[in-house]
Amino acid sequence: xxxxxxxxxxxxxxxxxxxxxxxxxxxxxxxxxxxxxxxxxxxxxxxxxxxxxxxxxxxxxxxxxxxxxxxxxxxxxxxxxxxxxxxxxxxxxxxxxxxxxxxxxxxxxxxxxxxxxxxxxxxxxxxxxxxxxxxxxxxxxxxxxxxxxxxxxxxxxxxxxxxxxxxxxxxxxxxxxxxxxxxxxxxxxxxxxxxxxxxxxxxxxxxxxxxxxxxxxxxxxxxxxxxxxxxxxxxxxxxxxxxxxxxxxxxxxxxxxxxxxxxxxxxxxxxxxxxxxxxxxxxxxxxxxxxxxxxxxxxxxxxxxxxxxxxxxxxxxxxxxxxxxxxxxxxxxxxxxxxxxxxxxx
Amino acid sequence: xxxxxxxxxxxxxxxxxxxxxxxxxxxxxxxxxxxxxxxxxxxxxxxxxxxxxxxxxxxxxxxxxxxxxxxxxxxxxxxxxxxxxxxxxxxxxxxxxxxxxxxxxxxxxxxxxxxxxxxxxxxxxxxxxxxxxxxxxxxxxxxxxxxxxxxxxxxxxxxxxxxxxxxxxxxxxxxxxxxxxxxxxxxxxxxxxxxxxxxxxxxxxxxxxxxxxxxxxxxxxxxxxxxxxxxxxxxxxxxxxxxxxxxxxxxxxxxxxxxxxxxxxxxxxxxxxxxxxxxxxxxxxxxxxxxxxxxxxxxxxxxxxxxxxxxxxxxxxxxxxxxxxxxxxxxxxxxxxxxxxxxxxx
Lengths: 346, 346
Ligand SMILES: CC(C)[C@H](C(=O)O)[C@@H](O)C(=O)O
Ligand SMILES: CC(C)[C@H](C(=O)O)[C@@H](O)C(=O)O
Known about the structure:
Strand content of chain A: 15-25%
CATH architecture of the largest domain in chain A: 3-Layer(aba) Sandwich
Bound molecules: 3-isopropylmalic acid
Number of helices of chain A: 13
Oligomer: homodimer
Strand order of the largest sheet of chain A: 2-1-3-12-11-4-5-10-8-9
Helix content of chain A: 40-55%
């Protein structure tokens, strides 16, 4: 399998190489052949090629079997008047690959749950997955700007809604058989369409329960009763906000993986944390989010569930017994934690 | 002063009459003349007049000095195919009155902080105010719906942004002198306009610090470091989500007031909780959110800050020493809590 690696900015290169190290070891242990090719994205790509998603990267992405991404962005490229921004590389990649489903599992590990801002009785039993629509909505709608005003259009087609909602139902079938669809159907036309499509799709999954939630209520329920949810599916912008809110529950952003999948080609796997330029290059970054993303890559893009499970078990082992990085209250380096996972993989 | 009372649905009438009782007592004690006129809104208005904001209500709103609202909505009127919905009454009222600034203070009382899902060390010292833009954005933009797709347009003019941002800076001047402006300027054109206007307005307030936050980061920071914020200003949809998320921090929705102000006429004051039809008519509702909204009414629409302070002190006293409603861990009725506030007002 050919894996494209996009190290990106800040701590991106450090965590990406941790992910690659784990994938290499898996290949060796299980007798697979993985090839790795690094390409530029984000601020790094702007600096080197003047483009946050250069043509060489695009071509490599389209030919890849799977993509492992570090992180993108940083204050260096955040001038509000800049005409080209690192995030554009991410958005262009999502569109190019047609990865319409952004999947973010949220599970609390006993040792890190203590770091959550929520009281332990609230987070007990949390085990949910967000599916955020990733290639439609207001992110990609028509935009205008004049001296006196600006507009952004949110548009959804039935097809865009249906495919991501189906994805949620398929996943729910393998889990607790409950889908929560989040919208703002009391105000938005796109949300009313969303709700009607979700309701129609649900008829094909009589074994799965469908519940509708308004986005504002959902923002509350994520804090008051997060353990009540299984699969949560929502549109792009709501998903952006709610997944970040939910990620805080885990105690550290450094632990959470994500997958962007559903397109005709490769999926993109990346930790949910940002590029954290303040700690870049110091081996302080937590590699576990990226390593768990690599596990998702094995499962979803390479069809290697056993290999994925080995990696996940290794991370669990390290979380339980190992010295962790600073964000998790330890003082281990990125390298040391990666080393511990590699050892636990054997 | 002439006060229009909109009891609305569910527990709305119960909490509204608690607010009226407190306002009557303030009038008596301080020698003011307040007149109260009840009008229909929401589901109640649909049932009685087939319109969530009937013409009699509209006329009364336009002539009022201030408006006290209970709550609107309920499952009875939530059929997704309904052509008329209770919430339309709220939206139409906001537009009619031009109340562009929705103000939601968030403060934790020691006794109720224990009910917060957040750990006490996180909520310590929280004292912030949200200013949500209330009459623009995607709520009021052009909408389309066809067989195959739907659209909602988010539009903001410079003027709409400037007036609400100025409101935030004026308020910050009377507080901790910090404004946090929330947007999604890395993706949306309306957000880039928002950010540029906020930056320009800030130049008129050299004594106030302006910070920009992306909405997804803000959703995290509200949980990880809520005490760092003073005045938070944002557009309509982001404000809807973030204010509801933030409201959970207080431990009970039943305590939090809101004011919708800035229009040429009267302001609207209402608790942030919903109509809670499951407990309606049983004297179980917490009246304190509405009573604190009445205090905001005294301060902002009637220019009676001393009277407002008396009401707030009375609520503080009851929170400290009184038997509270069920949502706050007590077993007092709506009536009993209202009675206790009235006693403490004397
Ligand atoms: C960088 C930004 C465009 C992006 C988004 O909003 O999609 C990020 O916040 C994310 O969630 O991946
Ligand atoms: C009922 C609904 C239209 C309303 C809104 O979203 O504005 C409510 O959620 C609120 O926040 O007041």
